[in-house]
Specification:
six-stranded mixed β-sheet, 21 helices, 21% strand, five-stranded mixed β-sheet, disordered N terminus
């Protein structure tokens, strides 16, 4: 039967489930990386994770993943059974993370449609050496090692029963959680695990690999197994452990006669008696069932009816066939949805918002004398429904930052080990939720910022002692929401930024104004130099820094999603780098303005004030630059019509409106002809065939059907 089933329908579940397991594994390991050893619960959890990955990879025939996960399982099997004292915890942590990296890389190949052909031999060899070191230490202390954790992959799923005096017979009933998806795959994993010890194994439903609907039956009625093996009940339970998919496992030992007669699942599942007849043919069983049903005028519908659990005629060398009537499906509490479908749904919601604006702003409604009371009531109800719908869809797309933060934990661990620095990593607010698309954009910037904190920020252990600093270096990654934005900060207690060193480097690269003294530059302006392309203060090129790349990539990626970067530092005490990013990219609250016949939109959060100015408030420089004095403060002025070379725009400042924009404490005044109003804006990207224009971040469709360009405040303020 091994060669008959199709793995295509199981591949997505394999990747999804094992990705979650690997994330949990990494989190468990990194949480205890600074401890003296793993606690008993963690050892059991890691053992169970490797056992699960080994089994599912064996089913999918990914031999290299199966081999390396089995070898790490051996290590934790020994730790669990022997409790040795001579364990090098840091080395063990590195081995686990190396295995996690290898499996993740192989799964990424599978996800991309490539063959998982990575060579695990060196990794397995290192694990063997580590395990032998543990065992040799135990032998020297006179301890008796536990039996080997042997994994024997059978050539076929059914093994002909050969009972001996050492054979035991079990009836097993597995109950899955109601929300378990693809329970048939999880059920097969239990069967696959039991194959290692099975002399004879039967299960129902039997068609768990060929019929996806069997998963619904398993969730509703449970999964039944008959097992003949030379193993104890505890060993059987160990192979089928309760986890996030299995709610309960009932194992009962019976006699050989009871095994052949079948067993009663009613007492276990709360259902009537269900027997297995191993001697009669299928025709005889069906005939008896039909005869029994015809005699009952009004038969009750039991949870497991007679004949539900039967075995077809036994032919030598062939898998036993179990038949099960298919019950009606039950709805699952949770379902997995492809991200692309969520994006499509978000696009449709955007189109709905645009259509709503078109309807409510239709020129047909402006005819004098129309009674629109009923229409206005319906319009209010429509607006409420569309707003609620937006909120629901937005919440479905929101993802906690926990996984992203945990990856940063791994980076701190790896880099600090290679640089020989003793660093503590702290996460705050990792449950803060952000749009999934936003998370994809901030992963790389965060990685650069954390690496910089570990490499540039934190001193070496010797330097910290020389400076009189007590305790470890510390990197804190924190997140919070405020004013419709997410604030993510990376803080270190290292040496801080050196203002004089940054100014010297900037002067060398020609970034400073010759007519402006160094003292005229604020600390914030000086610190921003590190975000320029090619700017690096590291004298020596290392694996992590010194090439002049990194922080400019951070700024580019953050600005691409409408975010900003702030840098604060205190010499000798450390630095704080803060990202301010929007919660979502899909729908924003915007102000619509008009220049001539062209409409523009500016995000409401970037506009601090609207103001009318007089000509005598303007300052005109000989080089063409303009400034305006407002309450004693001087602001640079951008005439938007002139900026983009529009054919028509209002030249007189007294006839236009000034918008004061503020981004990262930098302010600029934007002169427009008139304001149209405030409305929700669906952000659409500018087509790729149009050259990128400074100050524009996207476009949208207004209620009258016209296209408006969305202004990028950060691009205008620069």
């Amino acid at each position: 039967m091994a060669e008959e089933f199709n793995t295509d329908s199981m591949l997505d579940m394999y990747l999804f489930e094992n990705t979650q397991l690997l994330e949990q594994l990494q989190e468990t390991v990194l949480e205890q990386k600074d401890a003296d050893c793993f606690d008993e619960d963690s050892i059991n959890e890691i053992f169970r994770t490797m056992h699960t990955i080994k089994g599912s990879s064996g089913i999918m025939m990914f031999d290299n993943i199966t081999a390396v996960s089995h070898k790490l399982e051996d290590v934790f099997y020994y730790l669990r059974e022997s409790h040795p004292d001579n364990v090098s915890h840091v080395e063990l942590v590195e081995h686990v993370l190396e295995v996690e990296d290898f499996i993740s890389n192989e799964m990424e190949k599978i996800r991309n449609g490539d063959t998982p052909d990575g060579d695990a031999s060196e990794l397995i060899s290192e694990l063997d050496k580590f395990l032998n070191t543990l065992k040799n230490g135990a032998v020297q202390e006179g301890e008796e090692p536990p039996p080997e954790n042997v994994h024997t992959a059978p050539t076929q799923f059914y093994i002909a029963p050969v009972a001996t005096s050492a054979s035991h017979f079990y009836k097993i009933f597995i109950t899955f959680f109601p929300e378990t998806e693809m329970a048939n795959v999880h059920a097969y994993k239990a069967v696959y695990a039991l194959k290692e010890i099975a002399e004879d194994i039967l299960y129902s439903p039997e068609d768990i690999l060929t019929d996806e609907k069997s998963g619904e039956a398993i969730v509703k009625d449970g999964f039944k197994i008959l097992l003949q093996a030379q193993s104890s009940e505890d060993e059987v339970r160990e192979l089928i452990g309760v986890g996030y998919d299995i709610e309960k496992v009932d194992v009962f030992e019976c006699k050989a006669e009871e095994f052949l007669r079948g067993f009663d699942f009613g007492e276990v599942a709360g259902a009537p008696l269900a027997k297995i007849d191993l001697e009669s043919s299928v025709d005889e069983i069906e005939a008896r069932t039909q005869e029994s049903n015809s005699e009952e005028k009004k038969p009750e519908k039991p949870a497991i009816a007679p004949g539900d659990f039967v075995i077809q005629s036994r032919e030598p060398g062939k898998q036993k066939k179990l038949a099960k009537d298919k019950p009606k499906a039950e709805k699952a509490s949770f379902i997995s949805v492809n991200v692309s479908k969520m994006d499509q749904l978000m696009d449709l919601i955007g189109e709905l918002v645009i259509s709503e604006s078109v309807v409510l702003q239709s020129s047909d409604l402006k005819v004098p004398g129309l009674n629109l009371d009923n229409f206005n009531k319906a319009a209010v109800q429509l607006a409420k429904i569309s707003t609620d719908l937006q909120n629901v869809i937005m919440s479905m797309r929101m993802v906690p930052l926990a996984n992203t933060f945990q990856k940063m934990n791994r980076i701190v661990f790896d880099v600090s080990r290679k640089l020989g620095k003793d660093i503590e990593f702290v996460m705050i607010g990792e449950q803060t939720e952000v749009d999934k698309n936003i998370i994809e954009h901030i992963s790389d910037p965060l990685m650069h910022m954390v690496r910089n904190a570990v490499d540039h920020g934190i001193e070496t252990n010797e330097e910290r002692r020389e400076c009189g600093k007590i305790g470890k270096g510390k990197v804190t990654l924190a997140a919070r929401t405020e004013a419709g934005k997410v604030w993510i900060s990376v803080e270190d207690n290292g040496t801080g930024l050196n203002r004089e060193k940054l100014l010297a480097k900037a002067r060398k690269q020609g970034l400073l104004d010759e007519n402006k003294p160094d003292s005229a530059y604020t600390d914030k302006e000086v610190y921003q130099f590190i975000t320029l392309p090619g700017f690096s203060t590291n004298e020596q090129v290392t694996e992590y820094s010194g090439r002049g790349v990194g922080m400019d990539v951070v700024v580019q990626n953050i600005q691409a999603i409408g975010g900003t970067l702030e840098i604060e530092s205190e010499p000798g005490l450390g630095s704080i780098m803060t990202l301010k990013i929007p919660l979502t990219l899909a729908i924003i609250d915007g102000i619509v303005m008009e220049i001539g016949n062209t409409c523009f939109v500016m995000e409401t959060g970037a506009v601090k004030q609207f103001i009318r100015v007089k000509e005598n408030m303007m300052i005109h420089e000989p080089n063409g630059e303009e400034y305006v004095m407002i309450r004693g403060e001087c602001f640079p002025v951008i005439r938007l019509g002139k900026w983009y070379g529009l054919a028509e725009y209002e030249e007189s400042v007294e006839n236009g409106v000034m918008l004061i924009l503020e981004v990262d404490d930098r302010k600029v005044c934007l002169l427009v002809d008139r304001l149209i109003g405030n409305q929700e804006i669906v952000v659409k990207p500018i087509p790729s065939y149009i050259k990128k224009v400074k100050g524009l971040s996207g476009c949208t469709q207004l209620g009258d059907g016209s296209i408006a360009l969305i202004l990028d405040a950060a691009g205008l303020v620069e």
